[in-house]
Fold:
Amino acid sequence: LIMRKLASIRKIDAVNSIPDADSIEVCTIGGWKVVIRKGEFKAGDYAVYLEVDSWVPHELAPFLSKGKEPKEFNGVKGERLRTVKLRGQLSQGLLLPLEQLTKQIATEDDYDGFDLTDILGIQKWEAPVSAQLAGLVCGPFPSFIPKTDQERVQNIVHEVFVEHKNSKFEVTLKMDGSSCTVYYNDGHIGVCSRNYELMNDEKNKNKVLKNIGIKIYHLK
Structure:
């Protein structure tokens, strides 16, 4: 079970210019590219890196609301970080200065990879229940079942290309759709999508199964 570090301290590997851009440049952090203001960071600096799909509290980065009223998610006002393209350069995530957080971390030896997700109140943004599943959800994903995940290769560049440089890897592609979890607990069989447990209703069973991408067969 991998717990994602939505916010962590990361070392900037490189800073490069962007063609035809005078006020912005691009940082490389592991396998990620993030657009920054020109001169804001330099290679070797430590910064706070926030991943795409982080829900960022308004007080942490008010500029994300672009002068508008911030949105709300799980009772917290803020904004969702999205992948954007600026002057033709893809930007995935957000970099924030580290200075205001140094009091919460003992020494610079602890910096690299230090998890700030809970400290900064960062949440993983999840899409609301889709129209197709409206009325089919009976509750959140059961807390007694761990969610499995795979780490993004952008976050493990050193492990892949240095520690295991002579190893063979299988490349997989994440496809659109919904994951499926089926569990049996005290006589109850439950079917879950990525974030919700779905209702076991004969009237809409086929609709549920279609949306989570599986078929059920009755054997006689």
